[in-house]
Amino acid sequence: MPTIIPAVKPEIPVSVKDDAARKKVRPVSLRKIILVGDSTVQVASGWGGAFCADHVTTYITCVNMGRGGRSTLSYRAEGSWAYALKEAAVPGYASVYILIQFGHNDQPGKPGHSTDLETEYPQNLRLYVKEARAAGAIPVLVTPLTRRDFVNGSLQDSLAPWADRVIAVAKEMNVPLIDLHATSVATVQAMGPVESLDLSQKRPSAEVLAAARSGTSAGAFKPGATTETAVTQNAPQSVTFDYTHLGGKGAALFSKQVAEALIVIAPDLGKQVKP
Where is the SGNH hydrolase-type esterase domain positioned along the sequence (predicted)? Predict the structure, then answer.
């Protein structure tokens, strides 16, 4: 039988003895960060999971609402954006930030998701910004994470036009901007076609590795190609090798870049976001 030690009954009630210290307790001031975007943001295939897990303190509620296969069009059409606005409207937070990153699935070749680069895509972004502000949140536009396709040793930057539109909308509407596209392009180009393979969800095949060593990616992304199945409740994100989605090393690398940039553009988060 275990030995049971009886509890000590204090001579003075704790509520009386501890009264002075209890009066010094102050209410906390909490903030919230909501992540909105596609598979390069969502848990298990993007940078968002690592961001919420490793780059915020206990004084920030971090909600990752990224969903694979979505664009500025389909994220709204299915109702995901409405959920994000409801999350932003929850009372009691000192400030709420919504980080918004789209582009990969707005590109041509994805029926039900693709948007026109010159008109629809920037207009959709403007609407996200307006509605986030109307909900009392602070929108932050994030340029799309680069893909990692190489030809003759040079990174193929198929998302540059989409990043440019995000930057233009941010300037036009005076929205805080995280240029993840620029930092990720510079990082991946510096790593090169072989080292950047380590950022993927799975190890590459011998064929893919051999192609990378030649300087040109095997099966590289082509504009207009459908490369991703939208994640649903019955079809979660698959784990595979490609030049877009992120494994643990990639998520850690790019979530750090997002955190570092966020501290700069949102100084009030400086003590709550960890680079």
Answer: 36-182
Answer yes or no: is 186 within a domain.
yes
CA–CA separation, 177 vs 262, rounded Å? 9
The CA-based angle 236-240-243, given to 5 degrees, is 115
Q: Which two tokens stand for residue 268?
A: 């009030």
60 strand-pairing partners: 31
CA-wise closest residue to 249 among 210, 208, 204, 196: 196
Q: Is residue 22 part of a domain?
A: no
Specify if 5 maps to a domain: no
Domain that holds residue 246: 28-269
Distant-in-sequence contacts of 171-176, Cβ < 8 A, 24+ apart: 172/126, 173/126, 173/129, 175/129, 175/139, 175/140, 175/141, 176/138, 176/139, 176/140, 176/141, 176/265, 176/266
In a domain, 15, yes or no: no
Distance (Å) of CA 111 to CA 86, 225, 228, 273: 28, 11, 12, 37
Beta bridge partners of 177: 141
What's the number of domains the chain is made of? 1
pLDDT tens for each residue of 64-120: 999 999 999 999 999 999 999 999 999 999 999 999 999 999 999 888 899 999 999
CATH code for the domain of 160 = 3.40.50.1110
Asked if 50 contacts 66 with a C-beta cutoff of 8 angstroms, the reply is: no
Residue 96: both structure tokens together: 């709420």
> Tell me, what DSSP letter sits at residue 273?
B
Cα–Cα distance, 136 to 130 (Å, whole number): 10
